[in-house]
Design brief:
- It is a single chain.
- The chain is an alpha/beta fold and 579 residues long.
- The strands form 3 sheets. The protein has an 8-stranded mixed β-sheet with strand order 4-5-6-7-8-12-14-13, with helices on one face.
- Helix content is 31%, strand content 14%.
Length: 579
């Protein structure tokens, strides 16, 4: 059980940095209450306190229940600064209560590394040196100064109900209002980006989003107010100091404590991999994971790539009997056993899918991670579901190339930008939707071939594309993407921001059922006054998901009984009339 770490232990790392943080005391005070909540599950019913919502947590390891079920909750792209949106936290809390998962998996971009909170230590690319960082910050400062002088402002608030009807007009205004800032930005980009990136910036890059004039979805020209605010405030032009990094660690710890609070308070174990924005705060993945491990329930091991075949444990997680095989930060596998703990049934694999490529576009898993993926089937002896941040090029196999005049067509991304696509209804599940081009790496690193040829994987699920939520099958492997669950960056309308629930059945463990649990259904209307400028107006109305994993059996039985009674009553009335 959790609670092995008391609130005092959880805050020990935070307290040690008080001297280096200007507001360390206030951060610690805010976190103390949340961290102490973890102790609510320390003694369970013995102390008259709540039991964990996770059946596996109560058993001390990931395992199938006596009912034959096992549940995973995937959270993608929280992507927020030090102050996490209350709507994001409310969605996480509601989803945990509704789904009661055995484990929560975070698939990257939990941290908006480009946020103004981390301006002093920000880095856009891992390979950037001091000169490039200074040049980039100067360019951002000049760009935003010019924007302020010109009075350009596009932080329009498109409500969910009016986003579709006002889409064309708002897009035109946005393009006109930002013409001067776009020109100043292009001058700056010419000195820091290669020619390919100047033609089409990454959709998720740290720089303010710029959309090609040939973009099919004109509504995507809107900027994200949260990101624009972040860049407008970044004016750092000096080398980060030890104090700067200490402050960043405090702020990252604050952010993590906020979005983990609903999970820790409910005693649910969690695992984390990384995206292309986490590191931009200036901390390495290893440093980030050290902070995650301060919280009870974290199953991320201290990764040592030199010996990934060694079976290890993470006792600090509170899951004393849980085994894990680790490669490097963000890349490891957790076996899930049967109810009797005699054999493994499935594996939950996470891999760091990389961030950016030097030649432009997004990166791929490194060689160590790919070798580890090849070895996992032999290590655990069963097939795994794989979670990572960035989708593979093979995800385009779930789409159908169409004319640019086709309704709801979406232009492909970078290597696929010469065509327009829609979901292929013959291969995707009901309820799937496509709101933006799949932003995968330009080149195929061979990852999908490893998964297929090893015969050790049955599904791969990612995040990264905030407006996409689809599930399909390619070459016998289930591929899916989960939309953002966060309210701190771009994405679909508030009601469509979601988490993904997976339910596994011991009778056919490689065929999980999955469902998006949306904010609109679980929470209702957002309380934040933020302007959500990215709408899903181009997404067709779907037929709905095939299953409702939150359906209560008692409710269905009651409805069935009522329906049967109605049928009997109607038959009886008709019988009397005939007489």
């Amino acid at each position: 059980m959790f609670g092995k770490k008391s609130a005092k232990n959880l805050n020990s790392g935070t307290n040690s940095n008080k001297g280096n943080s200007a507001n360390g005391n206030s951060i610690n005070e805010r976190n103390a209450g949340k961290n102490s909540a973890a102790g609510a599950y320390s003694q369970g019913s013995a102390a008259g306190e709540k039991l964990s919502l996770s059946v596996s947590a109560r058993c001390g390891r990931l395992k199938f229940h006596k009912s034959g079920k096992f549940r995973i909750l995937q959270l993608a792209d929280i992507q927020d600064g030090a102050d996490v949106s209350k709507d994001t936290i409310n969605l996480i809390a509601a989803a945990c209560d509704a789904a009661k998962p055995d484990i929560v998996v975070f698939t990257g971009d939990q941290i908006a590394g480009y946020a103004s909170d981390y301006a002093a230590t920000y880095r856009a690319r891992r390979w950037e040196g001091e000169t490039e960082t200074v040049a980039r910050n100067v360019g951002i400062w000049v760009e935003n100064s010019l924007r302020a002088v010109s009075g350009a402002n596009d932080s329009s608030d498109l409500s969910e109900s009016g986003s579709s009807s006002n889409n064309s007009a708002s897009s035109a205004n946005s393009s006109s209002a930002n013409s001067s800032s776009a020109n100043s930005s292009s001058v700056y980009l010419s000195s820091t980006e290669n020619s390919d990136e100047k033609q089409q910036n990454e959709k998720h890059s740290a720089e303010p989003e710029q959309i090609s004039k040939t973009q099919i979805s004109k509504n995507q020209t809107s900027k994200n107010p949260a990101e624009k605010k972040s860049f407008g405030m970044r004016k750092s032009r000096r080398k980060p100091t030890a104090s700067d990094f200490a402050q960043t660690r405090e702020l990252v710890r604050k952010s993590i404590s906020e979005f983990l609070a609903p999970i820790v308070e409910r005693g649910i174990p969690f695992a984390v991999t990384h995206g292309n924005h986490d590191f931009q705060c200036g901390l390495s993945n290893a440093e980030l994971e050290a902070i995650y491990r301060e919280f009870p329930g974290c199953l991320n091991p201290e990764a040592i790539a030199a010996n990934p075949a060694a079976q290890r444990h993470v006792p600090a997680s509170g899951m004393q009997a849980q085994t894990v095989y680790a490669c490097e930060p963000g890349s490891f596998v957790l076996p899930v056993c049967d109810v009797d703990e005699k054999k493994n049934v499935i594996g939950i694999a996470l891999v760091d899918s990389g961030d950016y490529a030097r030649e432009g576009g997004y990166g791929v898993p490194d060689r160590q991670a790919l070798d580890f993926l090849r070895a996992i089937p032999q290590l655990i002896g069963v097939k795994s579901i794989l979670f990572q941040h960035i989708p593979m090029p093979q995800n385009y196999r779930l789409l159908r190339k169409v004319s640019h005049l086709t309704a709801n067509a979406i232009q492909g991304y970078r290597a696929f930008d010469d065509g327009c696509y829609v979901l292929d209804e013959d291969v995707v599940q009901p309820g799937s939707y496509l709101g933006e081009g799949i932003s995968c790496p330009d080149t195929d690193c061979g990852e999908f071939d490893i998964l297929k040829e090893s015969d050790g994987y049955f599904a791969v699920f990612t995040g990264h594309d905030h407006r996409n939520g689809y599930v399909g099958t390619a070459d016998g492997i289930m591929l899916g993407t989960t939309p953002t669950c966060g309210f701190g960056s771009y994405g679909p309308v508030p009601s469509k921001r979601a988490v993904r629930l997976f339910e596994f059945d011991i009778r056919h463990p490689y065929e999980p059922r999955t469902q998006l649990l949306t904010f609109g259904r679980l929470v209702g209307k957002p309380k934040s006054a933020a302007a959500y400028t990215f709408a899903m107006s181009r997404i067709p109305v779907s037929k709905g998901e095939a299953v409702d994993l939150l359906r209560k059996p008692k409710v269905s039985v009651t409805l069935g009984t009522v329906a049967a009674a109605v049928v009997w009553l109607v038959s009886a009335i008709k019988g009397r009339k005939r007489k």
